[in-house]
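Changelog excerpt

This revision adds worked examples to the README so contributors can see how folded entries look when concatenated. The first example is reproduced verbatim below.
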Amino acid sequence: MSEGLPARKAALALVSSVLTRRKPLDGELPQMKALPARDAAFARALASQTLRHYGVLDAVLRKFLKKPLSPHKAGAAMEILLLGACELLVLKTPAHAAVDAANRLAQADGKAVHFKPLVNAVLRKVAGEGAAIFSNLDRERLCTPDWLWHRWSAQYDPQTARQIARAHQSEAPLDIALRSADAAHPESAALFGLARRVTQGERVEDLPGFAEGAWWVQDAAATLPATLLGDVKGKTVIDLCAAPGGKTLQLAAAGAKVTAIDLDAARLARVEANLKRTGLSATLVTSNALDFDGRADCVLVDAPCSATGTIRRHPDLPWIKEAGDALNMAVKALEILEAGACMVNPGGLLVFAVCSLDREEGEEQARLFLDRNPEFTRVPIAAEEVFGHAEWLTPDGDLRTLPFQLEGGMDGFFAARFKKA
């Protein structure tokens, strides 16, 4: 078991950082660089699955705990129990291995060591009785914080809220976007347009066509906003909040003269690397979108948001966000949207997009923008523009995708298109 201990220690650090300090999981991953690739992959998988099933794992553990464990006294004991329960109930690790690993983690923690007998006893009970309890609990409800469940139930309906929560129980597949229709690609299923879903299980960098720059990783739903600009060949396009760069690559591949703006220089460097790999070109500018002074035929605003449409990819999000985040992000997004509107040439198009399931950040934002900017009118999206998927369109003609739509799921996105007089 000592061979797997470094990976489990790393997973414990990740889960503790999310649950006790509300730090984003992706931001904590660099600390695993010292681990061998196999250990790092296992640590991330264990941490991600623990967070994805956190609510139901916690419920199982509480069946065997007389009272909650105080972090002040017990240290990381509760997180150690969660990792052990995840190994037993989700990853199906043999009981002796999972329990022994948890005991070793407790032994290495200055406070949890005093709760090692409890950790051992509880996980042995989970190994014997946990599976039956686990299978009979309401996973969708338990793995969705109250604030999200109530918002989705009110903004959609209870059945849709449950479908969304059920989709979040599964990890997102690997989707790619092709540079062109005849580009080389790994074994994959065609989705729509140039989007494909990979069915091979290799590392991204080892897949056919990656080194040649024939494609890039991009969720299928994330490819839709850029297509709403129509034929952009030869047109000038400003891509605001451009990183990680999928939309910039799409627009450049379609022949647009793209200027990609992002505040984060490190993330913009990733865009530059992907442009170089794919042989595409765009002008990259590190700048606050509110400070950039430019004009273009089309502007794409992929605004900052609560990102609740990407929970399949980021299972930590429900546990580090709260209800007020959507409102705070909506205020910031409207500022960027209106800044982008000033960059649109007369007669040009503006597309606004967010990867949020919250109507306050999507539908209501579009309505507010039109009220405040009478020189713009909504250009409804036709079903043929989204490859015949009329179910992705709102009554107003905007785009709204949900995580349970499309076989295998997709990110939750909202997008609206406006034209300047």
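The second example, added in the same revision:
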Amino acid sequence: MFTSVSVKNFRCFQDFSIDSLDRINLIAGKNNVGKTALLEAIFLLTGGTNPGIVVTLAAGRGVERFNSSAATELLFAPLFSNFDDRNPIKIGGLQINGDRHTVELQSVPRKSTWLVVGEAMNYELENSNHIGQGLQLKYTSPSGKIWLSNIWQDAQGIKAEQLSKKTPLLTASFIAAHAGQASAAAQLSCLEVVKEEYNIVESLRIVEPRLQRLTTGLVAGMPVIYGDLGLERLLPLSIMGEGLQRLTYILLAIAKVRNGIVLIDEVENGLHHSFMEKVWHAIGNTARKFDSQVIATTHNYECIQAAHQSFTESQKYDFRLHRLDIIDDNVRAVNYKQEILETAIATGFEVR
């Protein structure tokens, strides 16, 4: 679990830090202030031994298809603050046990061994002087050990290589504002194996009281989650309401990344405000059970109020609100402790 994170030269962040992170964290702020970018920075940190994470970040922004000539513009350059790749991206995170993890991403030139002729003809050359754009990913563990990875473009497309193979020391799950259910179905299968899915079902009854169980199946080779509402047949989760889907994805992700971090963009999506206090109760209980940390974003004032009220009434107030603001052209984080947030809500002070 991270207690603080620092970000330099990534997206909108020139030199940013956020501290006082707790088990459950909610990131607020105006549009385009960097809420989603902060989740991406933390995700990049946790996946610092996997070069494919750069492509994953692009896909999360809707950039899923690009040819090699577009990679620099759509894949590499947007990662750097002001599109300036002369300075490396540096992200660091301090854990509650004192361990510090860092990742550095820098632009590097790479000689291509391919020459494109026409639309579909590639000729391999032994000594090409064509310079392609590449990125080098350097992850440094708390012990000081370094793992290097490369990702680059050439005439064949995007390629990646791990110069030092290593199982990630950190685990994380990123839930986009509008997530699909394929990965959630795989997560449910893992829980079914160890017979822990019933705990998840109990929490999901917040949204759908008739829910008796969840299970997985295959439709045309694709994993699908089904729910039992006591009807004659099981129903696909996809037709059982956006709120139930959203809470299912969140709770399954928390359970899957035991001892890891769950990053949720626009956590309130699909969930009615009248459920949110109980939703936060479920998120908090599940995160404690699986010793996971949650960092989520929101635009919704009622979501913030519900979170504060839920954790106030719980046995432990392990929640923190962080508001991002732009001050002197730099993004800054303001942390709200329980007492300060209580006063802000009581007086109607704007904390979104």
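Reviewer comment on example two: The longest helix spans residues 242-256. The chain has two domains: 48-162, 172-347.
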